[in-house]
Specification:
45% of the residues lie in helices and 13% in strands. By secondary structure, it is of the alpha/beta class. The strands form two sheets. The protein has a seven-stranded mixed β-sheet. Strands 1-5 form a two-stranded antiparallel ribbon.
């Protein structure tokens, strides 16, 4: 039987769908909204299952290698490499790198690579990006669902598994690519809150859900609770550039992630709209002074809802 070491890459250095129901007036239909969860502070973490299983590790490593090979041969992967190599995108990456030679990669919330193919393909994409671009440094990865088997395979693939649940609050002390496809919206907000300032945002590249979609969603549904929980996501849109989104739509088809059987089309479109976000230096000087504007986004929305309730009450002669 082959050993796991046979599968180790030679050139590598070693949370869920959301639904909230808007309060209904009369028989207004239900709509899906991002579910807001309270994220606690950072805390030590270890897999709950402590038993090593070499057979399961070998089986998972084989599945990962199949996914890596499948993705590497796909039109999607070659397209994304070509896109990253364009002068526009490379210039933005080099601005983030500044004088550094490498950009570390931090992967949050991809899910169980042992249980599902979608997380395996997402991890495969991250690994292939590192292999293809020498300016991508070490990969750190975390999801609280990881098992001991998954941790062993991730380490064999050249990734470091974090021993602390950072709750998405990693401060970018050096250039960092945060790889966060389909994470809960509150994790994005935690990340931005921890890096709220030009000094830190300048060091970030983010692979994840397009923030402009959240902004449009909140504007449409006008829910102050959601707005308050996503205030950094909403406010940062004016300082960011979503330089790359279209090819991720192909990735969704490739991995078969979207399923219309359990979500309406608008919910799927929001949750699956992925892109690369880079924060524009010329715009970031205003970030340090934008605390009041964050509050005003929420206050204005709350006032709008209050005024609407008064109008409704007057109309119905409460």
């Amino acid at each position: 039987m082959a050993d796991m070491k046979d599968f180790e890459p030679k050139n590598c250095n070693p949370t869920e769908d959301w639904t909230v129901v808007v309060p209904r007036r009369g028989k207004q239909r239900r709509r899906n909204l991002p579910k807001i969860k309270t994220i606690e502070q950072q805390q030590p973490w270890a897999p709950t299952d402590l038993e090593n299983n070499p057979e399961k590790e070998l089986d998972l490593m084989q599945k990962m290698q199949i996914c890596i090979t499948k993705l590497e041969k796909s039109i999607f992967y070659h397209s994304i490499v070509n896109q990253i190599q364009t002068s526009e995108v490379l210039d933005n990456f080099h601005k983030v790198l500044a004088s550094e030679s490498e950009m570390q990669m931090v992967i949050y919330g991809i899910g169980s690579i042992e249980s599902y193919e979608t997380p395996r393909l997402q991890l495969a994409l991250a690994i292939l990006i590192k292999r293809n671009f020498d300016w991508v440094g070490d990969i750190e990865v975390f999801d609280p669902v990881f098992s001991t088997t998954e941790c062993a395979v991730l380490k064999a693939l050249g990734c470091s598994v974090l021993s602390v649940n950072e709750q998405g609050r990693r401060q970018a002390l050096k250039p960092t690519m945060f790889f966060m496809p389909h994470c809960e919206a509150v994790l994005y907000d935690n990340l931005l809150q921890a890096n709220w300032g030009a000094e830190f945002l300048n060091r970030i590249v983010l692979f994840g859900n397009c923030f402009s979609k959240y902004e449009s969603f909140v504007s449409e549904f006008k829910n102050s609770v959601i707005c308050d929980s996503l205030k950094h996501v909403i406010n940062v849109c004016r300082y960011s550039s979503e330089i790359y989104a279209t090819l991720f739509d192909f990735f969704l088809v490739f991995i078969g992630h979207a399923s219309s059987s359990s979500h309406d089309s608008k919910h799927i479109h929001l949750h699956n709209s992925l892109g690369i976000m880079i924060f524009i230096a010329a715009h970031l000087t205003a970030v340090d002074n934008s605390t009041t504007s964050l509050a005003s986004v929420v206050d204005n929305l709350a006032y709008s809802q209050f005024q609407q309730s008064l109008d409704n009450c007057t109309h119905h002669k409460c």
